[in-house]
Amino acid sequence: MDATTSRTPTIQYHNIVDEPIAALVTSAVPTFQRQQRHCFGDASPGEFPLSANPSIVLHVLTACNLDPRDLAKLEASTVFLSISIMKLFIDDRIDNAAPANFAPDYELSLSELAALDMCQKRAIFKPMTEGERQDLKQRCGRSWKLVLRFLLAGEACSRREKSQAIAGPGHSIAVTSKGAVYSFGSNSSGQLGHGTTEENWRPCQIRSLHGIRIIQAAAGAGRTMLISDAGQVYAFGKDSFGEAEFGVQGSGLVTSPQLVESLKNIFVVQAAIGNFFTAILSREGRVYTFSWGNESKLGHQTDPNDLEPHPLLGALENTHVVQIAAGYCYLLALASRPSGMSVYSVGCGLGGKLGHGARTDEKYPRLIEQFQTLNLQPVVVAAGAWHAAVVGQDGRVCTWGWGRYGCLGHGNEDCESVPKVVEALGTVKAVHVSTGDYTTFVVSDDGDVYSFGCGESSSLGHNTAAADAQGNQNVLSPEIVASLKQVNERVVQISLTNSLYWNAHTFALTESGKLYAFGAGDKGQLGVQLDANRTERGNPERVDIDLS
């Protein structure tokens, strides 16, 4: 934003006239006095009267994209909240005191105005009506800073509006930063969205989505869901839930993206596909689910092929959720509350994967209290088939659930029924975590990647000669993926297959938009052509697609 776009008046600077050398020598003025500039000619040299034009402060706060916590600290500062500044700001009714995104609100502090302006830049906030915005503000705690925190948290943990790659069960989806979608791999149910059921190893753009910007994608067994920047959901593939191998197979196939009619009145920002259900997250932070049969494991009864979304009841009804993650038979929800971030879980509790210290099922969402004990603020959550993981704001990683093959990273195969910090990553500041079927990946703030768990299909990236000779060794503690360091780029996202019935493959997305793949490739899901008689690739290979 510049002075032109914000309608801020041009500031006139006045030079102090240089005095002759003789005058400087004969006067009491110091010899090394420098020429100074200042705003408005009646102020003393060097003084910058912010109280006379608080729009300058607002412009700086907005342009710097300050964190909501920083804005709160500024608001608490006696310097920032100088009575004279705020009095002039309110009483003088400066027409251009706010950026061009909205009319000035003289009831708000500068930090609140800055937070509101930054909210205006978010894709999911722009189309909201004034009534919807005020309702969101009320639900978030009556502060635009809390609304901004809610919006930023959702973007950070799900790469909303950014390039992303999804390693689905046998097929893959890649979304560019501009919202174009490519798909490749298995296509027996039409899950690639190209109007056919022919599998294809070469990434191909879904042409029928031309003119629609996709901001988020989800892939399940034989099905794909895409979410547009307008909050609409497009789905294709099998029309039922559950793995085909489990015995539930849809009677019809959808081979091209179709709008999900039952979601037309909900502005959706994320979808997560489990084995027996699909969950969606609305712009306002509400969670809805489709299908789990008649066992009421998500707080409601449905038929296996139910097409109507049901709100997730219980503790999340009045809580803002920023991210959802679906495991095989359970759901995790990362929520933003005025007191901080928290995680809720619901569903099947086998293996302790719900994180409550027991292995019992939970019909309604329940707060995982262990994070308060650990003094950890969750910022990213991941749900594997039978285990889960969280990254904290301080960079610590916690895992819990079924520890088979060492997927929890604690050096053993024990189960953990409450979140436990991965001590082997104590010197690493994590920013991202991804989980699959007994496999976990962690990305550090400097772009290094660590993996642990099941070593089948070379999906961990530790494809050493010794591992090959012994048949894909399992890794019980985090090990750096040395093969990814050779790409000489910072990795920002890892995605891996989360299914019990498909051999796993893994994607690594770099900061510049390059995509690397390794693991199982028997269906073309790596996006690269394998040599004859090969079904997997141990070392990362560049996929011929630019996601930047």
UniProtKB/TrEMBL annotation:
Superkingdom, taxonomy of origin: Eukaryota
Look up keyword Disulfide bond and say if it applies: no
Record's signal peptide: none
Specify whether DNA-binding is a keyword of the entry: no
Q: Where are the RCC repeats?
A: 179-230, 231-284, 285-337, 341-394, 395-446, 447-512, 513-548
Write the record's keywords in alphabetical order, separated by commas. Answer: Repeat
Query: Where does the record place the RCC1-like domain?
Result: 163-496
Protein name in UniProt: RCC1-like domain-containing protein
Species for this entry? Ilex paraguariensis
